[in-house]
Specification:
2 domains; Rossmann fold; 20 strands; alpha/beta; disordered N terminus; GTP-binding; elongated; 16 helices; Uridine kinase; disordered C terminus; seven-stranded mixed sheet
């Protein structure tokens, strides 16, 4: 990979990225890509974040969904409408369609809906029925929906069946005044569907309002979030999107270990990880992009240090209430590859002391301590332990045990990694539950010795260009 191609790659990844959902004028979603963007390993451990959006007819559910999709532009999102799962009307029902209650739970094929949602949650593509509201029948072709990071299920009665509710990670109820909903329905049905106002009001009083009171409003109690005014409530939608971003940024292992922190991925981060894994990447480019990733990890790790409130006077004489950095701090690099993280630490922490530990990584599962050079007052400091690759965790355990023997408090250790293997995370988090681990990615593709990344080579060799310890 030449420097020009690297620059082009990152430039393209830095632009606007939209979800895999395109909304056409009819409001139906279309998948932009035929294949999911995640790898097989990632798909295996990352389940989609499922959001349910319920509320009365014309409450603004569609507007809320569209605004969430628009703001989640760096995630793949699909929208599934409950309206797609209406039963086909029989010939007899078609003759008296004005007497058919489309707002009743029995009007929907909930079993079909459940099957589609469960398959999406398992990472399988599904065919969503394409229901024609003019003929009241399904038409071909069905809409193919691929697994995505976020699935939004929208409909008036999606909270009614407990089996559907259990699939959701977040439940939103759009709560809009009944007069506003009626006014919107009149405007929609008369302008877009050509119905006369008398028919609209008759249907509303006969079916829509009773169904809302009997089936829809009672499900409001199941909502995690209630949004008044629907799409007009920008503050609520902003908070919802922030919460979704936070949840999506949590790796599944973070839900098991509260002391594990995986920095939230972006297309920039994925792009840089792609470059350092490419066997054709030059050493110069490897070091450049590895340094960028390491800097992000170091800065994220520093955010977990304790801070004290501090007041300062600005040049204009005003008082600014801020925070003061942790003063008693040092870095400890696990030789050799840990030294690759020192420049980023020095760039972030002026004049920081850095010690070193050398552990023999072969022959005894990385448990033989060869060399140490630590600050004499290390027991009084917060320690940033540096090692870009967390593999089996054996070397990390040896290094942490040494720090504990030197009097460092377990809660004062932050372990910084560029890439971590699940085995290493399990080993360290179980043995040292008060140590914080900060990494940029959990790597399921590490091979047998957990130090070699396919297509990348041993980190220290690529970084330092040497084999000796």
């Amino acid at each position: 990979m030449n420097p020009k191609s690297v620059e082009d790659f990152l430039e393209s990844s830095a632009g606007a990225h939209f979800s895999g959902l395109l909304l056409d004028e009819s409001g139906l979603g279309k998948s932009e890509l035929d294949q999911p963007t995640t790898s097989n390993a990632e798909s295996f451990h990352r389940q989609p974040f499922i959001i349910g959006v319920a509320g009365g007819a014309s409450s603004g559910k569609t507007s809320v969904c569209n605004m969430i999709i628009e703001q989640l532009h760096d995630q793949r999102v699909v929208l599934v409408n409950q309206d797609s799962f209406y039963y086909d009307l029989t010939e007899e029902e078609l003759t008296r369609v004005q007497d058919y209650n489309f707002d009743h739970p029995d009007a929907f094929d909930t079993e079909k809906l459940l099957t589609c949602m469960e398959n999406l949650k398992l990472g399988e593509a599904v065919d969503i029925p394409n229901y024609d509201l003019k003929t009241y029948k399904k038409i071909l072709p069905a809409r193919k929906v691929n697994p995505s990071h976020v699935i939004i299920l929208e409909g008036i009665l999606i909270f009614h069946d407990p089996r559907v509710r259990e699939l959701m990670n977040m439940k939103i109820f759009v709560d809009t005044d009944a007069d506003v909903r009626l006014a919107r329905r009149i405007r929609l049905d008369t302008a877009d569907k050509g119905r006369d106002i008398g028919t609209v009001l008759d249907q509303y009083s006969k079916f829509v309002k009773p169904a809302f009171d009997d089936f829809i409003l009672p499900t409001k109690k199941y909502a995690d979030i209630i949004i008044p005014r629907g799409g007009d409530n920008h503050v609520a939608i902003d908070l919802i999107v922030q919460h979704i971003h936070t949840k999506l940024g949590q790796h599944d292992l973070c839900k098991i270990y509260s002391n594990l922190y995986v920095i939230q991925t972006t297309f920039q981060i994925r792009g840089m990880h792609t470059i350092i894994r490419d066997a054709e990447t030059t050493t110069h480019d490897f070091i450049f992009y590895a340094d960028r990733l390491i800097r992000l990890v170091v800065e994220h790790g520093l955010g977990h240090l304790p801070f004290k409130e501090k007041q300062v006077t600005t040049p204009t004489g005003s008082v600014y209430i801020g925070v003061d950095f942790c003063k008693r701090l040092c870095g400890i690099s696990v030789i050799r590859s840990g030294e690759s993280m020192e420049n980023a630490l020095r760039a972030c922490c002026k004049g920081i002391k850095i010690g070193k530990i050398l552990i023999h990584r072969e022959g005894d599962n990385g448990q033989q301590l060869i060399y140490q050079n630590l600050p004499k007052d290390i027991s009084d400091r917060h320690v940033l332990l540096l090692d870009p690759i967390l593999g089996t965790g054996n070397s990390a355990v040896q290094a942490i045990n040494l720090l504990l023997q030197k009097g460092v408090q377990e809660s004062n250790i932050i372990f910084l990694n560029l890439i971590s293997a699940p085995q290493g995370v399990h080993t360290v988090c179980k043995k040292f539950p008060r140590i914080k681990i900060v990494t940029s990615e959990i790597e399921f593709g590490l091979n047998e010795d957990f130090r070699v990344i396919p297509g990348m080579g041993e980190f220290g060799d690529r970084y330092f260009g040497t084999d000796d310890c």
